[in-house]
Amino acid sequence: MNFTGLSLDQAPPLDAPARFFISAPIFGMLAAVLIFMTDPALLMSRHSLEAIVIVHLFTIGMFAMAMLGALQQMLPVLAGVSLPKAKGVAAFSHLALVLGLLLMAVGLLQSSKVMLILAAVGLGAGFIVLLVAIVLAMKKVAFFTPTVKAMMVAVTIALLVAFLGLHLLGGYASGNISGLQVTLADIHSVWAVFGFAGVLIIGVAFQVLPMFYVTPQFKTFTTRFMVPLITLGLLIWLVLNIFLPEYAWTGKLIVTLFFLAFSAMIFKKFHERRRPVSDVTVKYWHLGAILLASGLLLWQADAWLEVDYISVVSVLIGGFVLSVISGMMYKIIPFLVWFHLNGQGYMSVPTMNEMIDKKLALTQFILFALSIALFIAAFWVPMLTKIGAISLFISMALLEYNLIRALDVYRMTRKKPPEFAMTPPI
Questions:
Q1: How many angstroms separate the CA atoms of 269 and 209, rounded?
Q2: Residue closest to 189 by CA, chosen among 169, 167, 164
Q3: SS3 for 30?
Q4: Domains of the chain
Q5: Is 267 exposed, middle or buried (0-12, 13-18, 19+ CB in 10 A)?
Q6: Distance (Å, rounded) from C-alpha 299 to C-alpha 316?
Q7: Residue 371 pLDDT more than 60?
Q8: Which whole-number Å values give the CA distances from 398 to 34, 122, 359, 363, 390, in the listed order?
Q9: What confidence category does residue 386 fall into, taking pLDDT thresholds of 50, 70 and 90?
Q10: CA separation (Å) from 259 to 16, 54, 291?
Q11: What distance in Å separates the CA atoms of residue 117 and residue 129, rounded to the nearest whole number?
Q12: What pLDDT, in 10s, does the model give residues 138-196?
């Protein structure tokens, strides 16, 4: 691994990001249970309450949880700045997000105005407190790498997406669902997936692919212009989608082209790496690139097709985000355990590869890929949805087990005295 340019002494306490990572697969399991219990016909409409709940169990419960955890860890390490009151902010935001999301799910399914109001309070507090803390930390950054710049764009978009989501949630609480609500929901979802998740994944890839996989560095044009051009495409799509929807495809085309370029870069970088040792995380990156390219092409063509394939697009693009997140958690959590233990003077620490059960990780990957394939096929054979839900549930359970197993190394090692007294225990 290459740690050049990292400020390792600025890292937050382990439990700050870890609580977010550990929560992600649990919400994946909850989503799988709800998919299994829901009539497949209801899942074909993105506007059904069941579909909305399931989507947010993934987008908030998995995507946002994992990415907020990564931001807390990577911003101090990459930018050399500490989040204010990192441990307290993480604990409060995590609890608020968990309670808010659960209240939102139950509130939508039960049509409970009180629960939806409480959900808005919880989700609003959870997102705003943590994101504002990140913004305050970013104000102290002295050197802006491409990854840090991408993080700043992603966090800014995350704030906008959060406020828009709270507005939409308020509409469901009040029963005021208008035509504008549908347009805002489209903007909310596209900006959340491509603006927050997509931009953050691209920015993180600039750093983690060379660091964890010893790939060549990304070209200067890519690191300098890809994120701004994607953001420009999203802005064009947003404006046209509101005022001239018949021309909104132009903004969508810009977004599509640059994300397609990124998916191609993933294969190119892994092909060119100096140490071509394969593990399950490489498979996750490759699968994610395939899902991203497939989803983008179908999303671009959807307007000209007689059948609405948006549910398939959602599975493909969502599968890309979830694939990258799953693969990176297998890298990030063992790295955090190793890093924190070494920083406390523990030298006899298992390697990052030894903390994860490789056979279970491969099984988990296969079940995950199978669930994506079944959910896509369910567009034509709806009964496959329930089989896909079972496969997804088992996959997420194995992911949770492997992540807890890695964190257990930290707990068990801390019971022994360190070989060298270096820093106070974190």
A1: 8
A2: 164
A3: helix
A4: 8-411 (1.20.210.10)
A5: middle
A6: 10
A7: yes
A8: 18, 29, 11, 8, 12
A9: very high
A10: 31, 25, 11
A11: 18
A12: 988 888 899 999 999 999 999 999 999 999 999 998 887 777 888 899 999 999 999 99
Contacts for 192 with CB less than 8 Å, ≥ 6 apart:
59, 63, 161, 165
Q: Tell me, yes or no, if the pTM score tops 0.70.
A: yes
At 74-93, the pLDDT tens digits run 888 777 788 889 899 999 99
51-67 as b/e: b if 16+ CB within 10 A:
bbbbbbbbbbbbbbbbb
Kindly report the backbone phi and psi dihedral angles of residue 155, in degrees, each rounded to the nearest multiple of 5, phi listed first.
-65, -40
Work out the pLDDT band at 2, boundaries 50, 70, 90.
low
Least confident residue range of 39-48, 165-174, 224-233, 237-246: 39-48
Q: Is the pLDDT of residue 425 over 50?
A: no
Distance of CA 245 to CAs 68, 132, 240, 250, Å?
Answer: 33, 33, 5, 10
Determine the residue type at 166: L
Work out the burial of residue 112: count CB atoms within 10 Å of its CB; fewer than 13 is exposed, 13-18 middle, 19 or more buried: middle
CB 66 within 8 A of CB 20: yes
Lowest mean pLDDT: which of 89-93, 195-199, 356-360, 397-401? Answer: 356-360
Contact indicator for 344, 413 with CB cutoff of 8 Å: no
Which residues touch 370 (CB under 8 Å, ≥6 apart)? 388, 391
- 261-281: per-residue pLDDT in tens? 999 999 999 999 877 767 899
pLDDT higher than 90, residue 381: yes
Contact assessment for residue 188 and residue 168, using Cβ atoms and an 8 Å cutoff: yes
The residues, any chain, with a CB within 8 Å of residue 176's CB and separated by 6 or more, are none
Cβ atoms within 10 Å, residue 165: 23
The Cα–Cα gap between 55 and 57 comes to 6
Structure tokens at 118: 């409480």
Rounded to 5, what percent of the chain is helix, strand, coil? 80, 0, 20
Single-letter amino acid code for the residue at 14: L
